[in-house]
């Protein structure tokens, strides 16, 4: 199914609930792509804490840049998106207080403690 068709279906479902006021549960919200996934109420805190722990390991400047790139590049053609991502990457290298790129490269190339694509670099390492 194409992304356009899937987006239209989610939009249609959401519009139905908006217009009718029909209630829906977490499972239905996940089906409509209003949320990523639903969990039982008794597991909500544990799931929330697990997600928070996962996000804490990531560089906040990189997360922010990734969100902006995704948001803006969705409407660009390939060339525009490539230029935007390049500019965003340069800006990130200059403004990241953690110097995440340099830290990750050092851990990958020199210390051999980080493998890109298989986890996060160690933000606590000095």
Describe this structure in words.
The chain is mainly α and 126 residues long. Among the domains are: 3-38, no CATH class; 60-97. It is built from six helices and no strands. The protein has helices spanning 3-20, 26-31, 44-56, 60-73, 78-95, 100-110. The chain is flat and about 60 Å long. It starts with a helix and ends in a 16-residue tail after the last helix. The mean pLDDT is 89.
Summarize the structure.
The protein has about 130 residues and is mainly α.
Q: What descriptive keywords fit this protein?
A:
126 residues; mainly alpha
What's the helix and strand layout?
Layout (H helix, E strand, L loop, with lengths): L2 H18 L5 H6 L12 H13 L3 H14 L4 H18 L4 H11 L16
The average pLDDT value, as a whole number, equals 89
Computed CA radius of gyration, to the nearest angstrom: 19 Å
Separation, N- and C-terminal Cα atoms:
47 Å
The string of secondary-structure elements, in order, is HHHHHH
Query: Which term fits the overall shape?
Result: flat
SS elements, strand count: 0
Class based on secondary structure composition and strand pairing = mainly alpha
Query: What share of residues is helical?
Result: 55-70%
The largest β sheet comes out as:
none
Low-confidence runs of at least 5 consecutive residues: none
The percent range for strand residues is: under 5%
Number of helices: 6
């Amino acid at each position: 199914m194409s992304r356009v068709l899937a987006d239209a279906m989610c939009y249609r479902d959401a519009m139905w609930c908006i217009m009718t006021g029909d209630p829906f549960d977490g499972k239905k919200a996940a089906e409509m792509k209003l949320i990523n996934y639903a969990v039982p109420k008794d597991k909500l805190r544990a799931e929330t804490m697990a997600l928070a722990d996962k996000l804490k390991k990531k560089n906040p400047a990189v997360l922010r840049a990734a969100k902006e790139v995704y948001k803006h590049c969705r409407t660009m053609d390939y060339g525009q998106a490539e230029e935007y991502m390049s500019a965003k990457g340069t800006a990130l290298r200059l403004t990241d207080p953690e110097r995440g790129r340099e830290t990750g490269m050092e851990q990958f190339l020199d210390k051999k403690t980080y493998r890109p694509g298989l986890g996060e670099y160690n933000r606590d390492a000095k």
